[in-house]
């Protein structure tokens, strides 16, 4: 019943016209939108408006949620599922945004982002903008945290999201496991492409690999081609070729 209600709500939201003023925020803040092919823009904008209206955005640390924040953060989330489906975000209820780095009761020190198992993503607005402003440095806090949400869509933060076909799981486990172990061992090719934080566990490896897939695709395709191909098959993107 919940899935039927959600489907009807999304269909209703998708029928609403896209606010034209939102395009200005995308043009100003989201570099990948400016280079997106015309054929992808329509499904991207359709999913963006549904995500932006469906999820609850909450300002924290004195931040007030504006249309700019709602649209730009939604764009970072929807980039990951343009070729997938919004159902990957079914368990995500709210996006909490701080103005800058923040502290959490269960973490030591300040953090830039966090995905919680109960359906929340917490982000630093400053980190979101920094990740977008430097689109090829391999660091994108929002993409990292929303990758965790995709990972969690099948029930666990384990580095394996819900794949397109059952037959894909064996190759995924083999390729991801191999490169995770190589990163843990400090091998040069992996370290040229992936941040060391990805060696912490399989979930962080998937999130870090997602950042690099979208931000350093040419390097990933050259240095770790099997990893690139596996992520390309899942996400449906070929960012190294600009598609």
TrEMBL record:
<dbReference type="InterPro" id="IPR010384">
    <property type="entry name" value="MtfA_fam"/>
</dbReference>
<dbReference type="Pfam" id="PF06167">
    <property type="entry name" value="Peptidase_M90"/>
</dbReference>
<protein>
    <submittedName>
        <fullName>Zinc-dependent peptidase</fullName>
    </submittedName>
</protein>
<dbReference type="GO" id="GO:0008237">
    <property type="term" value="F:metallopeptidase activity"/>
</dbReference>
<dbReference type="InterPro" id="IPR042252">
    <property type="entry name" value="MtfA_N"/>
</dbReference>
<dbReference type="InterPro" id="IPR024079">
    <property type="entry name" value="MetalloPept_cat_dom_sf"/>
</dbReference>
<dbReference type="GO" id="GO:0005829">
    <property type="term" value="C:cytosol"/>
</dbReference>
<dbReference type="GO" id="GO:0004177">
    <property type="term" value="F:aminopeptidase activity"/>
</dbReference>
């Amino acid at each position: 019943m919940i899935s039927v209600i959600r489907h009807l709500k999304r269909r209703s939201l998708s029928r609403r016209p896209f606010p034209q003023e939102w395009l200005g925020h995308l043009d100003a803040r989201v570099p990948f939108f400016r280079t997106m092919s015309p054929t992808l823009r329509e499904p991207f904008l359709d999913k963006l408006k549904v995500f932006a209206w469906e999820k609850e955005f909450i300002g924290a640390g004195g931040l007030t949620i504006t249309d700019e924040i709602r649209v730009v953060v939604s764009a970072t989330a929807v980039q990951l599922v343009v070729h997938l489906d919004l159902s990957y975000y079914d368990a995500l209820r709210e996006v909490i945004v701080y103005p800058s780095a923040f502290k959490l009761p269960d973490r030591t020190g300040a953090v830039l982002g966090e995905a919680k198992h109960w359906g929340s993503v917490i982000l630093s607005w400053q980190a979101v903008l920094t990740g977008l402003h430097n689109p090829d440095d391999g660091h994108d806090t929002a993409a990292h945290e929303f990758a965790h949400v995709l990972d969690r869509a099948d029930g666990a933060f384990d580095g394996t999201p819900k794949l397109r076909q059952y037959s894909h799981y064996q190759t995924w486990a083999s390729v991801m496991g191999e490169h995770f172990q190589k990163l843990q061992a400090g091998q040069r090719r992996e370290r040229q492409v992936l941040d060391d934080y990805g060696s912490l566990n399989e979930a962080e490896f998937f999130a870090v690999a997602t950042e690099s897939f979208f931000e350093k695709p040419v390097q990933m395709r050259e240095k770790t081609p099997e990893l690139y191909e596996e992520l390309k098959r899942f996400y449906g993107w070929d960012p190294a070729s600009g598609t």
